[in-house]
Recover the amino acids of this structure.
């Protein structure tokens, strides 16, 4: 889970440093892509984490999550709500009976 | 926040459809990058969301978060813990006194 | 332009260092995304290049192009041909008369 | 190779449709990342191209190259020159004697 107190700690650290003035949906969408690529880099050359360093993978995933939290806050979005709303759409589009074991979702999902 | 029940709902939907067999840290790191680019696409040509469609932005952010949740679960990582651990490192590296109003972090942060 | 001699120089440098054994369409597609994000990082916080450093932007664009060259070579693709083939499709889909001045392509192009 | 006539054809198609007014280094850097992710998507779940569709891979690589060409033109950069300049730096940093067979470059290269 990501608790409210974690979200608050993230936002407070940004505010204390006046970093939040750099934050907009557009700049944060770029930041998420940049950090996602740093995470991807851990698996650039193969299925095992570079140098087997899982702590580094965790840090990069944390960076992606941190910018996602900041983007949700910046836009006034409730993370639980948007994730569950999207899940409801996905479940409707891919019913268990017809989707089970199929990679169809994985071809079509955007 | 992202509550435990939301995490459970995500993981159950994947299991029910046998989608979790496609999940590994490597495939999920790619999925996060791909969804992050879909989010970036909302702001491809400017600072306003394409077509002003904030619901679409919310859905794309939800897709990034969903794959982040699945990657954390896949690797047995506690999202609260990794985000707070990374925040502690960031705070140590950029003390309020010297970082306030500076974009230094934004040049160096990876 | 990117001349044949440039392509040869890139491939020879990789071969001399035995780096080409890391190259496959899959690993190179990841490498292109990773370098593209480094290029994006130059414009993370605004429309001006970070630190106004255009030489750095050029280097990052060169990294993307280098991996594109390696991927085309790895797959036996003729870059001129694939770019012109795709251009022909785009021109067919977006005739000048109906597309001029419209951002339609920019909403739909994937 | 990517010949001058291909570059000209790309730029003319954009001009005819007034699409070049959307082009700036910042918007094109985002476009390159977005198309790179579409290319990555071909290899999202494994080392084989989705549906074994290599024509689709070629089209996505062409999209990345097209935006790279447009960015180079937009910034007045000579693609041959920037690629060879960057190659010279890479060769200096990773001499054949010490780099051969090593993945060092692949850990450090950004």
């Amino acid at each position: 889970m990501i608790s409210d107190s974690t979200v608050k700690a993230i936002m407070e650290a940004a505010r204390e440093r006046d970093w939040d003035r750099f934050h907009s949906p557009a700049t944060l969408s770029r930041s998420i892509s940049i950090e996602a690529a740093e995470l991807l880099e851990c698996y650039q050359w193969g299925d095992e984490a570079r140098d087997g360093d899982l702590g580094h993978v965790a840090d990069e995933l944390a960076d992606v999550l941190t910018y996602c939290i900041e983007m949700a806050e910046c836009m006034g979005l409730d993370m639980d709500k948007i994730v569950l709303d999207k899940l409801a759409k996905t479940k409707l589009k891919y019913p268990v009976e017809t989707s089970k074991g199929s990679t169809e979702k994985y071809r079509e999902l955007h």
About this structure: Chain D has two domains: 1-76, 78-110.
